[in-house]
């Protein structure tokens, strides 16, 4: 029987169980926790981590993408049994089944206490607001090159809390979906670069992802003025701290 908080993953006829202190990597590379020998799957495709008492899946900028219940995802909380499709339609489906974690479990309390940072919502111009970005003038400073200097703002409206993307380069995501503006509640996860945020009353709680970063591009082409194509439909992946010149 799986321990409380564990994640049970089924791939075909293989059933695996992982504890909350494990980081589960998924990909074609032999160093992955779950190795998927499929040409549609990226070498470092995605990962699962236990954060804030729940499992979170992140797509690691894979070429083929990840779907949950038919929807493309970048970051998603696994709070019930779900099917995760890796590089559909030619990839693999993983069944994810999180086991309930007792809130009195000392491990759960310790984990949450060590990775959370609480930011109080400030009041300005008649409404409660939080600015997020890389510039030091923001309420929440995110030291991450994936984050724009003025990246996003969380504000209170008459209908509740709203997050707005400030035309950032890499986008703001709510529950894995890139947004321009979206209403948010305490069950929603906001992703800005490697940082994840959620609302707790009038506070914004941040967790940081210190895992590796990969970059992927699909179908890159480049033509010069006379129609000469120098690069034609090239796809590639770059692991962290690597450089490619074309």
Please give a quick description of this structure.
This protein is mainly beta and 246 residues long. Helices cover 4% and strands 49% of the residues. The chain contains 1 helix and 25 strands.
Provide a descriptive summary of the structure in words:
The structure is a single chain. By secondary structure, the chain is mainly β. The protein folds into 3 domains: 4-100, Tumour Suppressor Smad4, CATH 2.60.200.20; 121-207, Sandwich (Tumour Suppressor Smad4); 211-245, no CATH class. The protein is built from 1 helix and 25 strands. A hairpin with a 2-residue loop joins β18 and β19 (177-179). The longest helix is centred in the middle third of the chain and has 10 residues, at 106-115. The radius of gyration is 20 Å and the shape is globular.
Salient structural properties:
246 residues; Tumour Suppressor Smad4; 4% helix; six-stranded antiparallel sheet; mainly beta; 1 helix
Give the averaged pLDDT, no decimals: 80
What's the overall geometry? globular
CATH class of the largest domain: Mainly Beta
What structural class do the secondary elements suggest?
A: mainly beta
Low-confidence stretches: 103-117
Portion in helices: under 10%
Q: In DSSP terms, counting alpha (H) and pi (I) runs of 4 or more, how many helices?
A: 1
Name the helix and strand elements from N-terminus to C-terminus, one letter apiece.
EEEEEEEEEEEHEEEEEEEEEEEEEE
Secondary-structure blueprint:
Blueprint: E1 7-11, E2 14-18, E3 24-27, E4 34-35, E5 46-51, E6 54-59, E7 66-68, E8 71-72, E9 75-78, E10 82-86, E11 92-98, H1 106-115, E12 117-120, E13 122-124, E14 127-133, E15 140-141, E16 152-157, E17 160-165, E18 172-174, E19 177-179, E20 181-184, E21 190-192, E22 195-200, E23 203-208, E24 215-223, E25 229-238
